[in-house]
Structure formats: C-alpha cells, structure tokens
Design a protein that fits this description.
By secondary structure, the protein is an alpha/beta fold. It is 40% helix and 17% strand. Helix 3 crosses helix 4 and helix 10 packs antiparallel against helix 11. The longest helix has 18 residues, at 151-168. InterPro entries: ALAD (IPR001731), ALAD_AS (IPR030656), Aldolase_TIM (IPR013785).
Length: 336
C-alpha cells in the first residue's frame, strides 16, 4: 500500500483538529455549549397609563410599555418558553424625591405590574429590582445626603421595598444598588415577613460602567443624575474586589449571582461560577445591545449572528443564563 502520510501528519503527530469540523453533523456532535430558551431572562420597561407602547430611541426594538401592554408581551414571552422577566419602572417625575419614597408604595408602578403579570401569566417568573434610582429625583441608587450616598439608610429603605415587592408577587428580588450588607438584610426581612420562598439574585458584581447610558434613558434617570456612581459600584479595573463582593453576598444568603455588564466582564463570569458554584447570570446591558443594533442597522455586521454569538459566549464563560433585551428575538429564532 502506498504510504500517503503527509508532512502535516508528521508535524501534528497525526492529530488533525479539523476532522471534527468537517461536516455539520460532526460539528453538532462535538459542540460544547448550547444556547436554549431556558437561558433567557427578558428585561422590560414599564410606564404609567394604558395602551402605551413607546420606543426607546437609543435601543431600537425595545419599548416602554404600560402595564396592560406589558401583560400582553409577557404572555407572548411565556408562549415562547422564556422562563422569567425582569421589570424596571419609569415613573412620573412628580413622584420622584430625594429618598425614593415611592419605592415603598405597595401600589407603585412596579408592584402594579407584578400583580397584573402574575395574575395573567402565572407560569413565568418575575424578577424585581429594589434599587432606588427609578424613584429618586437625583438618579442615584440610594439616599443622597450632603453629596454622599449613605449606606445604612438606603439599606433600610430597600429592605421595606423588597417586602412590598414580595407581597405583590415577585418571585426573585434582585438588589442592584451595591450597598454593603443589603443581601443579608433583605434575606432576614423576607423570612420574617413569611417570604422564605422568595429568592435573591444578587447583582454581585455591578461595575461603574459606561455601558448603562441607554438604560438610563429608558427609565428617565440620565438627565437627573448628579455626579457619578463610583463610590458604590465596582471599579472596572478590579477583579479581586468583585470576587470579595460576591463572597459577601454568598455568605449573606444570595441564591443566585449576577455579573453586570456582561461581555466586557466574561473573565468575572468565569471566576464567579468557578469560585462559588451558585447559579450565575450575566446582564447583557443596554449599551451592549445598542452597539450591536447600531452596527447591524448600518450594515457593518450581521446582527442576528452577532446576537447569538455573544449570548453563546456567556454560556462558554460559565453562565447559567443571560438577562438580555434580545430575549424575544432569540426565543423566536430558536423556535424556528
């Protein structure tokens, strides 16, 4: 028999990586990570009123919705198999004050949405954020006193807000304001109020990122914000600090962990999952979404392929799921 060994065989020791890539069926057989509809959490924006579907200019394809329209949209999400939504309110400016007091209102916009969605679509999970930034007149996530975001008073307020949200039917409380001690305080308060089954998804590593701009437009806080959030969000340069933050949240009783933003922090996603083993999620934030949409609309990239690729990257980095504004588009694509 003629020896057909090639120089490449001698170089590689007869190991050819392309054998497993040669056809669609082999590529499918050896694929290591997969994105499914079960990986998706859909963030939505709620506004007062009825019959409202209002586009967010900096987030093409994303709308602010009144509660009735949100209920309709969430029904569609549930029919597509999306497991959970995350709600964010854009309340009337007249209701915003220095301490974010409307966050404590049992009948505020976010709690109205929770009750309506839970009644109409009981088979989808509802995740609610207790940060004060949608409720404050200064756009910060906590109480502002003489130029300082005060920690302990903020925690006292968000604890009460968390109980109100759980009373309204929230399944998971997601504290995003990065105050020290808030996970433990919320857990103790929820249990004391009889909400032992309400989970906590900690924004364990929320960075002081420049990627949040379109989100702030969506909840109308961008023009309100006085100063920055560097005293309570994590410095983007600090990975070890992010791990310490996460460790504290785990010790205080977090059930799930979140990394925010997403794609610029894949290393943190990996470290969090490897280090703690809890269900770990990435939030593909508004700026990430807007970049992909803008480049796609200009014809510079294939938006659908980039959308799927970025979400698959989170799975490869160890994430159990992703909060993404692409959730409905992805769910429809997967259904096809």
């Amino acid at each position: 028999m003629q020896d057909k060994t090639h120089l490449v065989d001698e170089i590689t020791g007869h190991r050819r990586m392309r054998r497993n890539r040669k056809a669609d069926w082999t590529r499918r057989l050896v694929q290591e990570n997969r994105l499914t509809v079960d990986d998706l959490i859909w963030p939505i924006f709620i506004v007062p009123g009825s019959g409202i579907v209002e586009p967010v200019a900096s987030m093409p394809g994303v709308n602010r919705m009144s509660v009735d329209k949100a209920v309709e949209a969430v029904k569609e999400a549930a029919d597509l198999g999306i497991p959970a939504i995350a709600t964010f309110p854009n309340i009337d400016m007249a209701l915003r004050d220095e301490t974010g007091s409307d966050g404590l209102n049992a009948d505020n916009l976010i709690n109205q949405a929770t009750r309506a969605i839970k009644k109409a679509v009981p088979n989808i999970g509802i995740i609610t954020d207790v940060a004060l930034d949608p409720f404050t007149s200064h756009g910060h996530d906590g109480v502002l006193r003489e130029g300082e975001i005060v920690n302990d008073e903020t925690v006292e307020i968000i604890v009460k807000a968390a109980i109100a949200q759980a009373d309204a039917g929230s399944d998971i409380i997601a504290p995003s304001e990065m105050m020290d001690g808030r996970i433990g305080a919320i857990r103790m308060a929820l249990d004391a109020a009889g909400h032992q089954n309400v989970g906590i998804m900690a924004y364990a590593t929320k960075f002081a990122s420049a990627f949040y701009g379109p989100y702030r437009e969506a909840i109308s806080t961008g023009g309100l914000l006085k100063g920055d959030k560097l005293t309570y969000y994590i410095n983007p340069a600090n990975g070890n600090e992010a791990m310490r933050e996460t460790a504290l949240d785990v010790e205080e009783g977090a059930d799930m962990l979140m990394v925010k933003p997403g794609l610029p922090y894949l290393d943190i996603c990996w470290r969090v999952k490897e280090g703690f083993g809890l269900p770990t999620y990435a939030y593909q934030v508004s700026g990430e979404y807007a970049q992909i949409k803008a480049a796609s609309m200009n014809g510079w990239i294939d938006g659908d392929k980039v959308m799927m690729e970025t979400l698959l990257c989170f799975k490869r980095a160890g994430c159990d799921g992703i909060l993404t504004y692409f959730a409905m588009d992805v769910a429809r694509a997967l259904a096809r």
